## 1
Amino acid sequence: MQLKKQNKITTTLTAATCTLLGINAADTVAEEGDWDFDSAILYYSEVDRVSAIEPVITAKREFGDEKSLNLKLVIDVLTGASANGATPSDQPQTFTRPSGKGSYTESADETPLDDTFKDTRVAFSTQWDQPLNSDYKTSLGANFSTEYDYLSLSLNGSLTRDFNKRNTSVSAGLSVANDTISPEGDLPIGFSSMAIDRGQAGFDSEFNATRDGGDDTKTTVDLIFGVTQVISSQTVMQLSYSISDSSGYLTDPFKIVSVVGNDGRPVDYRYEKRPDSRNKQSIYWQTKHHFTQDVLDISYRLFWDDWDITSHTIDLRYRWMFDSKRYLEPHFRYYSQSEADFYHRFLREGETLPEYASADYRLGELNGITLGLKYGMKLANEQEMSLRLEYYLQSGDNPEGDAPGILSDMELFPDVEAIIVQFSYNF
Amino acid sequence: MHRFRTQGWYSGKLTSQHAVRIEIVVTPSEGPQSKSQFNNQNSPPTLESADGYWKGHFQAMASPCDIFMEVDDQSLANKLLQIASGEAWRIEQKFSRYREDNIVHQLNNSNGQPVKVDDEVSHLLDFAQQCWELSEGMFDITSGVLRRVWKFNGGSDIPEQAAIEAILPLVGWQHVNWSRPFFTLPEGMEIDFGGIGKEYAVDRTLLLLQQMTKEGLLVNFGGDIHANSRTKSAKHWSVGIENPNQPDAAAGVLKIRKGALATSGDARRFLQHDGKRYGHVLNPKTGWPIEHAPRSVTVAANTCTEAGVLATFALLQGADAEAFLKSQDVRYWLNH
């Protein structure tokens, strides 16, 4: 009749109703059958190194009675260069590509970077949450992730029991994952010397002699136990303990360790070799406090493993609400770890090879600081968007003492700087 | 419009998850409400305990009113119930068109003179004006005078066109002068907050109760409902929606964490003339019933007031009711 059918009046009507009742635009009715979508795109860029673009989309559907289904799709596009583990030198250095096809050369005085780092990862995960009765809730999930040379499958389940009028929740979770790696050019034999193609006739057989099988697997079992306690109507606290056991192929097939002479120059590059098992444990504590409008989120994680790595993470966020719709959230994160017992920045010529060795900077002693700022705003129709900007600085330490020869003047532990930009949109 | 009664009750059954179920059935009204219904002395509210919550009950606006409160303490439940019934009765007293001691009576008998109104009345008049604008003149709180010629009592008498035309000049928000805080109603015209009053009372009551407790609350005044989140048990409210014309059809159960439901329409209020059925919703521009409108419409929205207005707007669309509701992206239930 008179009303135009396509004319959506609900926004105006909601505003009029809110004025009448003297309230802010309330949340919409959360009903069964509504899909809730979250999309985000993340850009991560390390200075002179890897950069990644990662679009994420998640969808959640409530089925009533607290049943819900979550679906998540992540696509990672990685390009750029990554440190291969070798030490810098005063001469250019040539390395064979992991595939055995071709080589790359790093100029003098520079940290050797493998520029073949390029991959696309697609990950899909699904999670189903459901209460069993008024006190127990369960969650079951599956993840699938694939990239050119890597496949990961995992299943998880958890059980949560509520006590004390839901002011206390105790949960236990189990996750089992199986990963398969099958790099182009096969897996290198640990500690074998990298064959370098200098035009010699037998390069192919030299390279093949460093190769093991075409693929290998890794199995990881994680157990997590947690307690969430509502302290007051404004404060909630969480404490959890997790233990993780990995076994199988834990080595990075693309990383090498330089063997250096007394002058500090490389005489050999050996493929790294890590233990075939790792046991990790961590304790995590988090507290969220709601002020009248603002929210403080503080957490600490203590991590240790049987590779002798101990780490501390402190994370601090403060959501500063300008009004009910817009906020600014500063973020500070501090990370510090000790090195793995088999971490060696380099090996010395003439010394007996250790049982395991890796020069991967991620296993060395390091400190990282993240400084970030996020701006978020609610839009009409319950939509929300946010923009996050972060700066990350990681610096390594030199725990080896005196480096021989030329290495004493080289930057063995270069800082890694990264910029993270993330745009999120919830609809 | 919106002259109907709904009846709500608690089914008394708990599901395995102890969800509170509120069944709404749009029931036949007993014809136009008489003044005497409102002159009854209000009986005191009653409170009963259930598994994990309290249920309060009282009568207001010719409807059974229920308050579900997920609180432990009986004295708090009792206090909440007193506040709720007090607010419902206050709004009924202030806005009923059947009383002679309130502002509505004063306005309807102002003989064209400006009347200064308070903030609450101003807010409602502003809101009524916005609804009139949004509906392009179809939702009009001055249209009640048409009931002088239309009697929707299931009979077969339809008024003469001349009688309708005699009344029509007294209908139309465009004729009033609303200049806050002064309202001027031309002589012979009347206003009626019946189309928004009960839903407004539901929202106001929930807001008042929320100032007293953070626990889960559901306010149900004759099937018009507004609930907040059940923080303690973190469960949904289950609201059953039934079609009185098809009692055998499976009842829909709506699960809401919070939000509101309102119903407009009355399946029993119609006229049958020369084989043609005339529903009770009148077009304020023609003075004739809206044709092909659903008998009732239930809408879910953020607030009961908003749900009620959307449901009424839908009825005013006649045959296009469903298309209108679809274009508004709301959940709705139609009873044809």
## 2
Amino acid sequence: MFNKLKIRGGVHAEERKEQSTCQPVRKLGIPPLLNLPLRQHAGKPAQPVVKVGQQVKKGELLATSTGDDVCASLHAPTSGTVTAVGEITAPHPSSLTTQAITIEPDGLDESVPVEPLADPMTLEPGEIADRVDQAGIVGLGGATFPAALKLKSGARQKIDTLILNGSECEPYLTCDDMLMRERAEGIISGARLIQRAVGARRIVAGIEDNKPEAIAAMQAAAANYDDVTIQAIPTRYPMGSAKQLIQAIMGKEVPAGGRSSDVGALVHNVATAFAVHQALYEHQPLISRLVTVSGACIEAPQNVEVLLGTPVSWLLEQCGGLTEDPARIVMGGPMMGQILRTADVPITKGASGILALATPEISKNEASPCIRCGSCVSACPMGLVPLEMARHAKGDDFDGAKEFGLRDCILCGSCAYVCPSHIPLVHYFQFAKGELSAKRVQERKGELTKSLSEARKARLEREAEEKARLKAEKAAKAKAAKEAKARAKAEKEAKAKQEAEQASEESGS
Amino acid sequence: MTQLISSPHAHNRTSVQRTMLLVCGALLPATLFGLYLFGWPAINLFVLCLGTAIGCELLSLKLAGRSLQACKDGSALLTGWLIAMTLPPWAPWWIAVVGTAFAIMIGKHLYGGLGQNVFNPAMLARVGLLISFPVPMTTWIDVTPITSADAPSFIEGLMITFEAMPIPDAATGATALGHVKTALTMDVPVTQSIPEIYNAGDYLFGSTRGSMGETSALLILLGGLFLIFKRVITWHIPVAMLGTLAVLATVFNVIHPERFEPAVFHLLTGGMMLGAFFIATDMVTSPTTKSGQLMFGAGIAVVAFIIRSWGSFPEAIGFAVLFMNALTPIIDRYFRPRIYGYGYTGKPLNSGKE
């Protein structure tokens, strides 16, 4: 209750979660083809280390992270042959292409041999982070930021609380819920490794109170550890956003422009913690994930464990196929997920759900004028004024939009969810944010150009000065020489004159 | 190429139309009661206002080259309805037509249509009419329920509306606010003039002279509570407005009871209730943030109290609302929510390792 008062805004969307939680997680088999985009994470694409035609085994490295950049490596989800390294359709609304490695599975599912490892809990913090890096683990809640980088920066800062994000506030999605119900031990074990890696004092798992089974399972798994607490938090979207979660659990706000570590917190998704457990205890890199398949057009909504790179179309078939032509296929949740134009795209590390939505489930109304009702202001969890931001963004006044908080917008979509005029607010904000960052890049470029041209000007000036100085010196020298010559001449003349005078005197006398 | 569709893919299913129709629904009890109290001429006026509103909306949309479908949003209907609630119930037809046409075409569409107007169109119409045509706008008919013997028949109602039959002077009188104001100018203290015309019960349940929106404070209040319950409006503007007025009136009444009316009188008479729940809460012309709305409501109450107490007009809600409408942009500019991660001054919070 206390926390509920503190959290501002947000919406309580229709949950529609129960459809997909009635049966246990089903492990799907090996699809006929796997497409693994090189960039399934925030940051730069991974560098492929395999060639076309090469045989790979399950867990073998396909592409490696590129040095110090934000990047995550990629592994073979099963054994088979690399048939292509090239462009495929990206799982993105644009349907543009992306670089990917294509594997044709051989069906044997042979693993790479693993060397036995000492108890992971005895590893040095840095070693844990390295192994997480090698396993290609990224934030599985949707942000897909490489987990190892968070561990390394966490180890450098003072982290008090490791927050496990089990809020799963998006409607429809239940993959974290099911993971917590079925694999709570693994989550806690992975979380303890993360805790060791960053030196956190305690672990708090925040779970929305609409998941009593998950809370119970996690409590049972955490019973043996004094420093692990399971905290039920109010069900309110966007509770799963790191900033809101930190506020709900620690009662502190992350300062603007700062990071979670500024308030001594590090947030990891429960699925990420489980992936860490799998990597260190079971020697399995990140090659599969739980995906919620739901929506009114799905024959049998459920949670499935699928290999990364599995085509969405094959996944849908395995779930009984579609009952009708969906109005929209969404990857992720309905609040922040991305629309898919085609089902011929692969499941990636960040794909928490595949939703086939029917017309009554989605908002398809035409946008009408803003009536300034202020619903968006009340719904904004960040305290922004979405209607003003949209008004400025619409008029290409991005600095004006920034003044009303565009930079702090987390694109959660609460405002658009409640807008009676059905204005695509998030669309405006995404656009405006893109424009602002393009402008920033342009400005940085401009500054660079300016500093370069200034440097050149300074150099030219310096050179000109030098030249002038040399010239002056030369001139002075020449002048001096000339003067000396003149003097010499004058002297000579004087002497000659004198001599002549003398001579005439002599002759005259 | 299909249009790029951004998240969210879900919606809570509200719409402008639903909002407007809920407000109309909330007005319905008070309206039906008012129509009952004032009979056929009031019904004619009501129909005229609604019809003119829809007609002018369609005409304006057509002139602006927009889709006529936009009139389905119900905003014009609501404007017409609110104008009908604020006119003297037996006002002639042209009052309704001129007022509503002014509200829709000049008050709303000249500014750019729905969402763009600075001033509340219904209040613009009311104030414009009051200043231009003071006599028909202050001719308040006695309550003559449609079932009573004195009530005009349907034909007589039409004749009254279309000015084929004069309203008998004997059947009209002042509203309570007007009576008290007039009495004050003749040095009759309010302690004497109020009991002559007013008892709280009549004004609460409504069997008094006035516009349809003034008669039953209770029905308006219930409609307002319904809107708050349905989350169409929030409590901020009505509470700030009624609360500020109550405090101001009480303070002045305690200091000088013969000069200033008590708080209950202020709250129950005139358009205070209608103003607090239905007029000031007009979304387009009120601030969008909670703190701004509190400021706005309080501002209306202060202006209304000043005009009621020292101005020359007995009723002031219309003027007060328009005055605060004009200040809404500046209120919106300065009364914003605190952004997460920033202090109230707008500076980022300290990197909190305190």
